[in-house]
Amino acid sequence: MKFIQNIFDASRPAVTSGKLKPLYPLHNALETMMFVPDHNAKSGAHVRDAIDLKRTMITVIFALIPALIFGIYNSGYQHYKALGLLNNDIGWLQFFTLENFLFGALKIIPMIIVTYIAGLGVEIYFAYRNKHAVNEGFLVSGLLIPMTMPIDMPLWMIAISTIFAVLIGKEVFGGTGMNILNPALTARAFAFFAYPSFMSGDKVWINTTLGPGEALVDGYSGATALGQYATTGSTTFSAWDAFLGIIPGSIGETSTILILLGGIYLIATGIGSWKIMFSSLLGAITISLIFNAVAPSMISPEQQGFLSIPFYFHLVFGSWAFSTVFMATDPVSAAHTERGKWIYGFFIGFLGIMIRVFNPAYPEGMMLAILFMNVMAPLIDHYVVEGNIKRRLKRLKLSVK
Amino acid sequence: METNKTKEALFSKKNRKLLSDPMNINNPITVQVLGICSALAITVKLKPAVVMSLSVIVVMALANVITSLMRNMIPNRIRIIVQLVVVATLVILVDQVLKAFVYDVSKQLSVFVGLIITNCIIMGRIEAFSLGNTPWKSFLDGIGNGASYGLILIVVSFFRELFGNGTLYDYPVMEKLGLYELGYHNNGMMLLPPMALIVVAVIIWWQRSKTPSLIEKD
Fold it and tell me: What is the pLDDT of residue B36?
């Protein structure tokens, strides 16, 4: 590590006072990412917690990595499966192959790099303009954005969506910690509405680029489970496959078990709010049970089929798990009061599944549900705080009597 | 009352300010935040935006002049009704002219020409300006505000048509540039109303960073 330290030391004069001053935020960010800074607070209240923003963000990234690596394997697996090029009969040997990994990595790593360059570019510009250090908030968003995209998303679209999200979703409100909406979901929503043909439908979830002499297998369909439900009212995927994650979908969302693992890690380290995750689960189960109850009264068989599926299908298909664990728990855009978190999480699960089932134009409703609840979160907090004040005043009056 | 006041030149400094102020520090859309609905609705393409801007300029200038001419005769209690009658008459005239000469654009604008009557900028300027000023000044004020409303409309629709549709005034710019062959795609979000709001917001942001006098001290 010494030689990295030397590079930072050698370049410090140039960025603090020399010609490269605009690059100071970048230098500072990279240096504090690599080494623990030696400066500390000089006055005022000292926070005696070792966990600062940087550690928080890195923890979330650790939680994301299993799902990301699985997504890389899965992209390759889905591609070779569509082409009929899988030759081993044993499931696990088919899945964790070097071929699959390389295929996915060649697609996904450029996406991640582009997202970081685009997003950090905007962040560094604003850090320079407003004369503050680059915040770490983008570290997680930069990994979340590619994980919410389909595998074939063109890189320039990802870059534009990222720039939009960081600029309009975050920097105009004052940067990290001030944003109303979750930046990663803002990027996804922008991409979804700007380039719908790349973000929805049957064609985008599996890469089907054909090499010379290759052809798609007979009866191939690239539809996701939710896409199948919305059109036919049933799915060809099993809940167990979906729980493991070997189904088509956005890169990071498919493997429920690894997302669950990440969620447990987040709860254990105290980074993610278990209240939000648990209440989102309650919301999703509640609405599914309501749907099951009303399903027999529906006339069209497709709707009946989609409405009467058991609740655990809703939890493993689509992005319910990914959104609940990594998007809804974003500490900035979520509700801040403890009671508010219950309401906020409940409605994310509730509305997400409701949009998913009722609106065939949006086979996945979690994105819209979370953005909607992000906007509502300050209102929820307001009424929770008001309620607290009222209750205490009442208690005060009682005790005075 | 104003007996010993010397006659003011037609384009004195004060009168020129009536034209230039709305362009910048008193812009009806970006500073007064009036007329937003129509700015969202008809800025998908340049052509309707241009026609709409011209219509608003005409209606505004004439309405300002007419109410200014009548300002000493209008009883205070029914002034809003009188203003509405004046504006509505002018809007119907403009609507008929559009139908007669640019029918296709008139169809695109549909209800929004009729809604010029309720455009807050027009009522606002009549109330705030032409009821208390001479016809010439009111005319300049009407032109100034109408033109700056149109300016924002045209800027917003320029970006929305270029990025949302790949055309400018129905001329296929992106196609001629050959961008589609390089894998470029139109941005469907630009065609949706929320994006108009965001573009207006970005203009407000840019304008405020250029003119510090607009930034409130808190």
Answer: 81
Cβ contact, residue pair B188, A194, below 8 Å? yes
CA distance A117 to A132: 19
A-to-B residue pairs, Cβ atoms closer than 8 angstroms: 23
For residue A83, being part of any structural domain is answered with yes
Question: What ipTM, to 2 d.p.?
Answer: 0.83
Instruction: State residue A27's pLDDT score.
Output: 78
Does the pLDDT at position A304 exceed 80? no
**Do A25 and A138 fall within a single domain?**
no
> Between chains, do B190 and A156 touch, taking CB under 8 Å as contact?
no
- The alpha carbon of A352 is separated from its chain's Cα centroid by a whole number of angstroms, namely 14
- To the nearest whole number, what is the mean pLDDT of chain B? 85
Q: Examine the domain organization and report whether A145 and A16 are in the same domain.
A: no
Query: Does residue A47 sit within a domain?
Result: no
pLDDT computed for residue A288 by the predictor: 92
| Whether residue A29 sits in one domain with residue A97 | no
pLDDT at A91: 65
Are both A58 and A87 inside the same structural domain? yes
pLDDT, tens digit, for every residue of B94-145? Answer: 999 999 988 888 888 878 888 888 788 888 888 888 888 889 989 999 999 8
- What range does the domain containing A363 cover? 53-386
pLDDT digits (tens, 9 = 90+) for A37-59: 666 666 666 665 666 777 788 88
Q: Work out the percent of chain A whose per-residue pLDDT is above 90.
A: 38
Sort out which chain A residues have CB atoms less than 8 A from B187's CB and list them. Answer: 160, 194-195
> How many independent structural domains does chain A possess?
2
Question: A29 and A72: one domain?
Answer: no
Please indicate whether residue B67 or residue A15 has the higher confidence score (pLDDT): B67
Do A147 and A9 share a structural domain? no
Let me know if residue A399 belongs to a domain.
no
Which chain A residue shows the shortest CA-CA distance from B191?
A: A194
Q: Are residues A29 and A177 in the same domain?
A: no
Interface list for chain A against chain B, based on CB atoms closer than 8 Å: 154, 156-157, 160, 168, 172, 190, 193-198
Looking at the fold, whether A97 and A22 belong to one and the same domain comes out as no
For residue A314, the distance in angstroms to the closest alpha carbon of chain B comes to 29
**Which residues of B are less than 8 Å from A160 in CB distance?**
187
- A156 and B183 within 8 Å at the Cβ level: the answer is yes
Structure tokens at B147: 């033109």
Q: What is the pLDDT of residue A178?
A: 85
